[in-house]
């Protein structure tokens, strides 16, 4: 092959290759390509067509194009809308791009045209190559009859090897890579070898595809055959009276007709029953549909229970089963009164918040009993998968409804009392936010049409009486908290614990341990000593355990020693429960300098903190010990800043804080402590140590301090006053803004305690210093 060079406009092709002898239409929309074609039309109508290596390249350079292409004669140009032209070209010669000499306004290249030259084949070689090509073409057309017979007729008439190879590449649906490979082949023999390999591979691919299609068809035919046989078998079984699946479907249909439900629900069930009829009873799909139909039939769509309308009877039940908890009882009776007047009324969503063991869960059961409602308890502690609330989609293996729908199904009515226990313990992970799923459940505007992922039909939850329980509001997200009515269940007083133990816990433990009231008696003084010396809690769980321990030891004594009755009193209590475990730190006997009694709230009730301050010569350091939290440390710093700001009022030297070290310590160093309510206590203790003024030993205090000495309100006041009373404090200082909280505390708690309301540190010091 000889070559000669010339300059030719270049058109870059995307996703196609043009071969010599090929006539083809293609559209051009890139400006550089349009310019190249227009230049060719102005001159000799010749362009070089080169294929892009990457079709997505917008402005190709020499490195983006294959080096070998085809010189083509532009025969026709048609302008189309959108700045697009349609070009008709005929490939004439192979050509090789040496270099691009111009890039603007179009590509112009120095091109070496590869002239055709007949190979030096013998006549026998030529015949052999032609015969080989036609034989493989015959096989190809037999395997791929979609290619028209006219193509085979045209190709069979060609007598030149090179021309036949080009026409094969032009007329057969070869890949772009294969066409480019044939274009770049240096001589006819090389192109012959390559086209033979390409055709052989194409024949293999067509045969493999046919085999796969045949296998798929056989499988489909087999499934159709099995379906027909199953239908025939079903008919045979029905004739023999053995059509279990059909019988089940008929039973479901009858149950659907009897079901009290909206028409859309019935239509959905009937549709699923029809599907169940057409599916094999033994198939996995049949089992899924069966479970779904049974769930829909078991749900109480329009089935309700009749609430009790006797408020006095409901009040008697609540009073009999629970001592105290006045707010909860009052709210439930209000709900019942509204229901009596309106015949329906929206069910409230109550959230009982309080320490463990205060009867939150058990009162929900009593409320259900008082209102004659079905009771369903759903424990949310540790639940972190959203599907536990909303259910799983039926596409999953083992899918089932969420806990809300399951609880409704178990209740059998659409208006049960549903207890959401430990709602502050729900958590989130990658499977979804459980608390977010509860938002729809607990929103009275949204839960009228609650959609469970498994059921897929809107369920009305508006008539469910939801009662939630939580130990703390801190663990409940604000949007969820906003949907509930919060009722605080505070710690029990010793008097309340005494009555609960006497009326409820002791009789319950006596029966549980196989005893009778004639076989065991516990004196009132013994009960009071168990409460004060053997338990330290906000609720009554440990108290019940201690009474259970007494009952077990009494049972052993009755069985082993054959005694008719066991009497437990204050004197022999140690025999049953051992030494006393707890004792409140009592008020100090004398007034002291730098020691002040603070009040604290804990998860098991209130407690007192004895804050100690020492001042010693040093370099002005300020030390805090006793495992204090960040908030408590900040309160101490605010206190010392206040003292320094008023040091002149108390005769403190200007350089006092530079020459002395101050050390604050709160005993029980192993127990973490935090919160702002010890602010005024620490400030009083520091000022006492600095001024050497003693603080009254019978005084306890609580309140947050500011830099200017103002006293801010705090929480947990009832528990703190109970702790002060247990420690025999006579005077308790509380923030003035907490006066409204004091008014809600029972008179028996405040008996024997003198409350002083303080609004500033000046008032605190007036009452605290002896």
Automatic annotation (TrEMBL):
Domain of life the protein comes from: Bacteria
Enzyme Commission designation: 3.4.21.53
UniProt key word Membrane: no
One GO MF term: sequence-specific DNA binding
Limits of the Lon N-terminal domain: 8-203
GO BP term, example: protein quality control for misfolded or incompletely synthesized proteins
Positions contributing to ATP binding: 354-361
Enzyme class: hydrolase
Any one of the GO CC terms: cytoplasm
Keyword ATP-binding: yes
Induction remarks: By heat shock.
UniProt keyword list: ATP-binding, Cytoplasm, Hydrolase, Nucleotide-binding, Protease, Serine protease, Stress response
Pfam families: AAA, Lon_C, Lon_lid, LON_substr_bdg
Active-site residues per Swiss-Prot or TrEMBL entry: 677, 720
Substrates-to-products reaction catalysed: Hydrolysis of proteins in presence of ATP
UniProt domain Lon proteolytic: residue ranges: 590-770
Location within or outside the cell: Cytoplasm
Cited Gene3D superfamilies: 1.10.8.60, 1.20.5.5270, 1.20.58.1480, 3.30.230.10, LON domain-like, P-loop containing nucleotide triphosphate hydrolases
Subunit: Homohexamer. Organized in a ring with a central cavity.
Family from the record: Belongs to the peptidase S16 family.
Purpose of the protein: ATP-dependent serine protease that mediates the selective degradation of mutant and abnormal proteins as well as certain short-lived regulatory proteins. Required for cellular homeostasis and for survival from DNA damage and developmental changes induced by stress. Degrades polypeptides processively to yield small peptide fragments that are 5 to 10 amino acids long. Binds to DNA in a double-stranded, site-specific manner.
Official protein name in the record: Lon protease
Gene assigned in the entry: lon
